[in-house]
Specification:
The complex is a heterodimer of chains A (424) and B (375). With 424 residues, chain A is of the alpha/beta class. Chain A has 19 helices and 12 strands. In chain A, the strands form 3 sheets. In chain A, strands 1, 2, 3, 6, 11 and 12 form a 6-stranded mixed β-sheet that branches. In chain A, strands 8-9-7-10 form a 4-stranded mixed β-sheet. In chain A, strands 4-5 form a two-stranded antiparallel sheet. Chain B has 3 domains: 48 residues, no CATH class; 212 residues; 72 residues, GMP Synthetase, Chain A, domain 3, CATH 3.30.300. Helix content of chain B is 64%, strand content 8%. Chain B is elongated, with a radius of gyration of 28 Å. Classes of the chains: A alpha/beta (424), B mainly alpha (375).
């Protein structure tokens, strides 16, 4: 048949187009499991600082991150007694509890040496429990930042406020212009409520000062104290009153924390201000330039007194080990070096707590600005809910404040529940 | 016409494969020549290559090129049939009816100008080639336009829903299999064209390699705002177009069709190579597309297995996966009687099996049972 052979050739050619390759067999290496709260892009950025070193060291580092980090870690450590090798814990309160319960392995002498080369001693205090060094901050973040789009503020004829009174009058003015002043979303699965606790903490340290704040975190000043109650009232008046927050309070509790900034970028803007930690930059649309005339910028939530520096609430993720195998200590030693955070710092949303990074070359512009805020702080306090014992700070406080926002419980009920749980 | 010269060109091309010295003529091979098996195959091939198409075959191909007043009439008829077949296809696609869509394929006249493109390519008739390409472009634009307009008028039922009708969606996942289909069907079309006795088989080609439905799907998806799907449907059409022209051209060459002028004959190989290059161009996105589909399937299987190992009582209700550059995004809706606890173990299992970063978002519905009695 004329053409038959040609047809066969063509069809075989068409069939051969599909092909696939093989994979190389990986060599057996020691496995170190890390558990943390970083997910999606953040998980990739965390591992970007580890993989190359781990390959050279012949260690197979496997990272898993969960949105329900605290509950999942407690379950692994305390219930099924199958902890990860290393955890990245943003809650020093949880670290204290787990060390006292005998789960966390103290930092080895070798790692302590590396830490001493990279950290100021006062920063390492964050990782000390009962005078023992049990962990160290891997990442830090100033939380008292208010994000805004310079273009929007300029259109309103405003400049970043210098004092709390300025901020209050700007909020009223923005509302008068028919815009919504604040964006806020506190939904975070089992951690729902944490952004609201950050808000209240910022107001407590501003209104009552750092001493009362630290006493409140330590359980010496109760929730029922007038100074604490007054900060909650100020939060409601400034942010939660009708018309002041995008979508009203029902939207606040149902909006995912990582999506809360979305209305900031709509046209016309769905909100003008968004108070959130430096890490919020990684939740925003990619490629935003930071600066007073650029796409996005932030100012410090102002202090209550004119001319006084604004206090800063900061958070930090502590690296701790649950097993004392040499390869675990080795990974921990690497996490203590500035190299472990370099890629992340260059992509945005990573502030190093170490004392030996070159600001200009280490950071992206956003992180450099956030790092400068932390370094320049006159009054610096640690995130209160994260520092409290976990059964208070990372569970009850979150659920109680969520109930208080929706109006399901009164402030008196919230204070009573939390004070009773903390004991006398 | 100098048949001998024609063969000289072809002989020069194949002689290197012969075991013995070059033969003097094609139609009269030297009987004393010792040929290897390959040599005999090539010899047979060359023999068929040299054969002139008969009068009937020439006339059949010539019908693809109406001239004079017939050309205008042809254009009118072509445009009317394109609009009608596209309308049938558009309504069939929106109604999700494969029978209607197949009906539209039988009415569609696009195969005629596409085969004319192939014939003009191998016969080096540049003017005819341009006219044929113009008719193909006209048909393409009309079909997309009809799809767009029909969707604007009649897509209320599917607008706003998350899923496109199955018949539309089926046209938005072109892969290498579609290229295989198009090459085979194009070869069949090229084979059937000069053989009038086999022309009853031509509609089968039209069904095997649909041209109008992907075009209409381009218009519908574009109108519905599904830009990525629209591009994919266009890719499917381009695949079919390039593969049919290429395969049909090759088959026409093997049926003896040649450029009429000697100077153009030397360009024949270059012309066919241009059509092959067009196939190669569409093969690149198709290969990527096929790879990502294969990756998605592998990931889907990995997730399903991992869930069974993780909690044998859990049932997967909804699973969407996206494997992109070795990174996986998995969205899961799972139900089961147990309280889900170690979700990180599930993620680690999938990660180990899939061997790449994974982001898992799982919603778990716990089966609750209530048994009450009232007396």
């Amino acid at each position: 048949m004329r053409g038959l052979a040609a047809a066969v050739v063509l069809i075989i050619g068409a069939t051969v187009l599909a092909s696939c390759g093989g994979d190389d067999e990986p060599a057996t290496r020691e496995v170190v499991r890390i558990f943390g709260p970083y997910r999606n892009e953040e998980a990739s950025l965390f591992m970007a600082g580890v993989t190359e070193w781990a390959d050279a060291a012949g260690i197979d580092v496997r990272y898993t991150g969960s949105a329900n980090f605290v509950v999942d870690l407690e379950y692994q450590v305390e219930e099924i007694l199958s902890p990860p090798d290393i955890a990245m814990v943003p809650q020093p309160g949880l670290v204290q509890q787990m060390f006292r319960n005998g789960h966390i392995v103290p930092v080895s002498d070798n790692s302590a040496e590396i830490l001493a080369q990279n950290y100021d001693d006062v920063v390492l205090d964050l990782g000390r429990v009962d005078d023992t060094l049990v962990g160290f901050p891997y990442r830090a973040a100033p939380k008292s930042l208010v994000w805004y789009r310079p273009e929007v503020l300029t259109d309103l004829g405003l400049t970043p406020p210098d004092t709390f009174a300025d901020l209050e009058s700007q909020i009223a003015l923005i509302q008068g212009q028919g815009l919504t002043p604040w964006c806020l979303g506190i939904e975070a699965q089992l951690a729902t409520g944490w952004p609201a606790t950050d808000w209240v903490e910022d107001l407590i340290v501003r209104q009552a000062g750092p001493d009362v704040y630290n006493d409140w975190v330590a359980g010496i000043v109760p929730f029922s104290d007038e100074r604490i109650a007054s900060a909650f009232s100020a939060f409601r008046a400034l942010v939660l009153e009708p018309g002041r927050v995008t979508g009203g309070v029902s939207k606040v509790v149902s909006t995912s924390t990582q999506m809360a900034d979305d209305p900031l970028f709509t046209d016309p803007p769905g909100c003008v201000f968004y108070k959130q930690a430096s890490v919020a930059y990684s939740w925003m649309p990619s490629g935003l330039e930071l600066g007073p005339t650029d796409d996005i910028n932030f100012f410090l939530l102002p202090g209550t007194e004119a001319g006084m520096p604004a206090p800063i609430v900061a958070g930090a993720d502590l690296a701790v080990a649950f097993n004392d195998r040499p390869e675990v200590a080795s990974v921990l030693g690497h996490l203590a070096t500035a190299e472990a955070g370099r890629t992340w710092a260059q992509e945005g949303s990573y502030v190093s707590p170490r004392n030996n990074v070159d600001m200009a070359s280490y950071y992206s512009p956003v992180d450099q600005a956030a790092a400068e805020v932390l370094l320049g702080a006159d009054v610096l306090v640690f995130d209160g809910s994260d520092a409290m014992p976990p059964e208070i700070g990372t569970t009850l406080f979150w659920t109680q404040i969520t109930g208080w926002i929706t109006g399901r419980i009164s402030y008196e009920e919230l204070a009573q529940a939390l004070d009773e749980a903390r004991g006398p | 016409m100098l048949p001998g010269e024609d063969r000289r060109y072809i002989r020069g091309f194949y002689d290197g494969l012969l075991a013995g010295p070059p033969v003097s003529t094609v139609r009269d091979p030297a009987p004393e020549l010792e040929l290897t098996a390959i040599g005999r195959f090539v010899h047979h091939f060359r023999d068929s290559l040299g054969r002139e198409p008969d009068e009937d075959a020439l006339a059949a191909v010539q019908e693809l090129f109406p001239t004079g007043p017939a050309r205008i009439e042809f254009l009118w008829r072509f445009s009317s049939l394109i609009v009608l077949s596209s309308s049938i296809a558009a309504f069939g696609l929106l109604a999700d009816s494969s029978a209607v869509v197949i009906g539209a394929m039988l009415v569609a006249p696009l195969m005629t100008p596409i085969l004319a493109t192939a014939a003009a390519t191998v016969r080096a008739e540049n003017r005819e080639l341009l006219i044929a390409l113009f008719v193909v472009a006209l048909g393409t634009i009309l079909a997309i336009l009809v799809g767009f307009l029909t969707s604007a008028i009649a897509s209320d039922a599917v607008r706003g829903t998350t899923a496109l009708p199955g018949e539309v969606e089926a046209r938005t996942f072109p892969g290498l299999l579609d290229l295989g289909i198009a090459v085979s069907a194009g070869a069949a079309a090229g084979y059937i064209l000069p053989r009038r006795s086999a022309t009853s088989a031509l509609p089968g080609v039209g069904i095997a390699v649909a041209l109008v439905p992907p075009l209409v799907a381009v218009g519908i998806t574009y109108e519905l705002g599904a830009r990525a799907e629209s591009q994919n449907a266009l890719l499917l059409y381009m695949t079919n177009l390039a593969a049919i022209v290429f395969a049909a051209s090759v088959m026409l060459v093997f049926s003896g069709f040649r450029p009429r002028q000697e100077v153009s004959r030397r360009m024949l190989m270059a012309r066919v190579l241009v059509t092959l290059a067009a196939v190669a161009v569409v093969a690149v996105p198709l290969t990527l597309h096929t790879r990502s589909t294969v990756e998605d399937t592998r990931l889907r299987r990995t997730v399903a297995n991992a869930i069974t190992e993780w909690d044998p009582t859990a049932r997967v209700i909804e699973l969407t996966v996206d494997a992109d550059n070795g990174e996986a995004t998995v969205n899961l809706l799972v139900a089961g009687p147990n309280e889900p606890r170690e979700v990180w173990i599930l993620a680690e299992r999938i990660h180990n099996e899939f061997d790449g970063p994974i982001d898992l978002d799982m919603q778990f519905q716990q089966d609750l049972r209530f048994r009450v009695s009232a007396r």
